[in-house]
């Protein structure tokens, strides 16, 4: 009997497992992928995520993979360019963008180092339930085709946007917004970009970020309405968009492309109620949003910390589990909701209205305010604080 079984061993699941095991709980971590494996995801981690890697003692290993430390970002809106240092979080003033096939195994190794039992190549196919409807375990299939049954006090779905656990427990969804964008990215050699750089054009978005092996990830996003057209010939549409951005057009060519295009038109925007009897959800499984602001990895890390705080109160008997997990849901929502609407505005890919353009040009002229604005996009400066009428009035004055 485990204290917790965690389904999904990446940015959300591996830290939950590690943090629980560090407190002495007996944890099983399973993933259907064979590790190390890549996943359809960007790589950029906001400073608040890097700060957690540091606190967990794994940042050194992540940086040792050779992914560069990035100290600033730039937003090119055509007529306006906003350059800023990252807003520091707990003394961390940089970000990095490690390849996921390198990052995720480091997180799993930290979990295993803390005493977690890890089984990859293991697909959870059924949740076990008692007569009161409480989840009590999993039934999973191994790569060898064997079916295994394991019992636990709680099953945690850290199994991503297509969460099997969520489909099985059917949680209530709220703050649901339609899918807004589709996107594709790939990796390129011999491209010089010293920082994260985003290019914002009407109904188009592109981003470049240096990663491991001297490669640069270049991504592009379009309105979801264009997905059917884009997916028929991703390369043509991708290079067409890049061709409209002179700085990238001169550097990003097919000959320098390393690997294929990776992307999706399935980036839903929703919150799930993340708990019920014998189960909880964490990371993308419980809250999914458009990747345009690259929040998913840092959110998954923070979510893991919040969930573990609640679980330890519930598992230790300090609080009734249901109350502890209700507090987790409140904390998650209070932390994520304020920026969710801003994110939806970004993902709409509409040109900023004239008053916003004016404000952005004022911010761009002031390095301190540029960093605070970047802090808003990092989800480190509260949206309400930055956009408080007095602050906006003082900026415009
Ligand atoms: C195109 C794109 C670009 C993105 N770019 C960024 C970015 O630059 N920065 C950023 O922060 N975020 C980005 N994101 C979001 C980010 O990828 C996710 O938020 C993050 O990966 C969520 O982590 P997770 O651990 O919750 O889920 P995942 O990373 O999806 O991991 C889920 C795991 O569960 C396993 N699993 C699923 N079902 C089962 C099962 N039945 N049994 C066992 N295992 C199972 C899977 O194999 C997988 O390993 C991007 C997303 C997309 C789609």
TrEMBL record:
The keyword Oxidoreductase applies. Keywords: Oxidoreductase. This is FAD-dependent oxidoreductase. Pfam families: FAD_binding_3 (PF01494). Residues 2-333 form the FAD-binding domain. The lineage of its organism: Bacteria, Bacillati, Chloroflexota, Ktedonobacteria, Ktedonobacterales. Transmembrane segments: none annotated. InterPro entries: FAD-bd, FAD/NAD-bd_sf, PheA/TfdB_FAD_monoxygenase.
């Amino acid at each position: 009997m485990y204290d917790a079984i965690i389904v999904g061993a990446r940015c959300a699941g591996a830290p939950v497992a590690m943090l629980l095991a560090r407190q002495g709980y007996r944890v099983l971590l399973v993933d259907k992928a064979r590790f190390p494996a890549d996943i359809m995801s960007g790589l950029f981690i906001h400073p608040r995520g890097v700060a957690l890697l540091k606190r967990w003692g794994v940042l050194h290993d992540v940086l040792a993979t050779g992914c560069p430390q990035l100290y600033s970002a730039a937003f090119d809106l055509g007529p306006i360019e906003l350059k800023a240092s990252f807003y520091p979080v707990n003394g961390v003033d940089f970000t990095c963008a490690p390849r996921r096939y390198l990052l995720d195994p480091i997180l799993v190794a930290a979990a295993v180092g803390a005493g977690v039992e890890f089984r990859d190549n293991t697909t959870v196919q059924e949740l076990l339930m008692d007569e009161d409807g409480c989840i009590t375990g999993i039934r999973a299939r191994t790569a060898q085709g064997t079916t295994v049954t394991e019992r636990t006090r709680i099953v945690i779905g850290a199994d991503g946007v297509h969460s099997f656990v969520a489909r099985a427990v059917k949680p209530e969804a709220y703050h649901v917004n339609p899918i807004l964008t589709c996107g594709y990215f790939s990796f390129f050699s011999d491209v010089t970009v010293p920082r994260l750089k985003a290019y914002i054009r009407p109904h188009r978005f592109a981003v470049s970020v240096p990663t491991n092996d001297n490669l640069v990830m270049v991504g592009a996003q379009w309105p979801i309405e264009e997905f059917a057209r884009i997916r028929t010939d991703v390369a043509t549409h991708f290079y067409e968009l890049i061709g409209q951005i002179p700085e990238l057009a001169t550097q990003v060519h097919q000959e320098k492309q390393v690997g294929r295009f990776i992307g999706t038109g399935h980036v839903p925007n929703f919150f799930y109620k993340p708990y019920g009897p014998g189960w909880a959800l964490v990371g993308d499984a419980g809250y999914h949003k458009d990747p345009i602001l690259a929040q998913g990895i840092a959110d998954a890390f923070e979510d893991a910390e919040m969930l573990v705080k609640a679980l330890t109160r519930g598992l230790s008997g300090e609080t009734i589990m249901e109350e502890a997990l209700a507090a987790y849901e409140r904390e998650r929502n209070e932390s994520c909701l304020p920026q969710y609407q801003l994110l939806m505005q970004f993902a709409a890919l509409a040109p900023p209205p004239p008053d916003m353009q004016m404000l952005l040009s004022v911010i761009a002229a002031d390095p301190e305010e540029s960093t605070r604005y970047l802090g808003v996009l990092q989800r480190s400066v509260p949206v309400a604080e930055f956009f408080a009428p007095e602050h906006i009035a003082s900026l415009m004055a």
